[in-house]
């Protein structure tokens, strides 16, 4: 019996043999069978753990108080692609940033980029600074200037800068001005040749697409699907935008800035939906009491509601061994980075709850960055959205096939998919 049959109470239309499998299943079946799958996964994880960054550098200008780092974790996966022998990720800006943190983030990007199916290695850059402090523009411009020799457009392995914690829209303008080029910063405004992926919510589009892809595999009518969102920042707002466009109904949402957890018995009005999507706090707080009920001041309570799909889009480790038993949703799609602990992911699988991990569900930002760097003309926003939908839909299908075929948790199948791409195992693709 297919491992996906564990979720039978939610999906009544699957075949007696288990879920419908995509055309890639036969290829994956030939790769490894039975317990060999987990053994091979362990080998791949050990190889990945033993990897060292291909490139790392710390740049400093003591006179200006500048200290920053660039780490490129891997580049082989990009061979033959349009960004050959390079790695890419965003730029983190925090006062206590360390090289070890940037290394960890670059390693994570290697996994995410591979899971997305991109011919692109993982990288991360970072500046140890307060992006709101006086004089920061001078520090930032100096950091960008010091990193210029390492950029891919200048013959290096560093794919360029982007947005992360501490990033602000003006940073794109400063970086492009300092470099006299728009080719090494992603997330730029559309008029600068960018995809403006934060404003367009392309990462949230990917998360919503992951949920839709799984539901579509099993012929579920999205108009009957009720969902919950924890965290109504940029990610949660975009998930609401794109998932509700398919007819799904927001049953509950939570965010401390809105006072906690809200429940909705009826579909949202267009005005409230739009206010939440725009993150218009004043408009949303005015409409919420008229359409919803504040059931708890604890934003964690939304995770435990009896809904079809829950999207944790706030912070790390909100579902752990301590509370995993309270999850009632039949499908969990990770919008935040690491919102479910590793052990809780496996516990959900054992209970028959489907989980789509973050590195499969939310690479929309890096997919948009890839489009921004590789498409010279045309509507880059439309191209980024199209590629995000195509890549994530395909990858969810591959993960489901592997999980079903080998009776393993989806996170294990996703890791196998990503690591196989990093180490160029052609049997998985």
TrEMBL record:
<dbReference type="InterPro" id="IPR046346">
    <property type="entry name" value="Aminoacid_DH-like_N_sf"/>
</dbReference>
<feature type="domain" description="Glutamate/phenylalanine/leucine/valine/L-tryptophan dehydrogenase C-terminal">
    <location>
        <begin position="195"/>
        <end position="429"/>
    </location>
</feature>
<dbReference type="InterPro" id="IPR006095">
    <property type="entry name" value="Glu/Leu/Phe/Val/Trp_DH"/>
</dbReference>
<dbReference type="InterPro" id="IPR006096">
    <property type="entry name" value="Glu/Leu/Phe/Val/Trp_DH_C"/>
</dbReference>
<protein>
    <submittedName>
        <fullName>NAD-specific glutamate dehydrogenase, NADP-specific glutamate dehydrogenase</fullName>
        <ecNumber>1.4.1.2</ecNumber>
        <ecNumber>1.4.1.4</ecNumber>
    </submittedName>
</protein>
<dbReference type="GO" id="GO:0006538">
    <property type="term" value="P:L-glutamate catabolic process"/>
</dbReference>
<dbReference type="Pfam" id="PF00208">
    <property type="entry name" value="ELFV_dehydrog"/>
</dbReference>
<dbReference type="InterPro" id="IPR006097">
    <property type="entry name" value="Glu/Leu/Phe/Val/Trp_DH_dimer"/>
</dbReference>
<dbReference type="Pfam" id="PF02812">
    <property type="entry name" value="ELFV_dehydrog_N"/>
</dbReference>
<comment type="similarity">
    <text>Belongs to the Glu/Leu/Phe/Val dehydrogenases family.</text>
</comment>
<keyword id="KW-0560">Oxidoreductase</keyword>
<dbReference type="InterPro" id="IPR036291">
    <property type="entry name" value="NAD(P)-bd_dom_sf"/>
</dbReference>
<dbReference type="GO" id="GO:0004354">
    <property type="term" value="F:glutamate dehydrogenase (NADP+) activity"/>
</dbReference>
<dbReference type="GO" id="GO:0004352">
    <property type="term" value="F:glutamate dehydrogenase (NAD+) activity"/>
</dbReference>
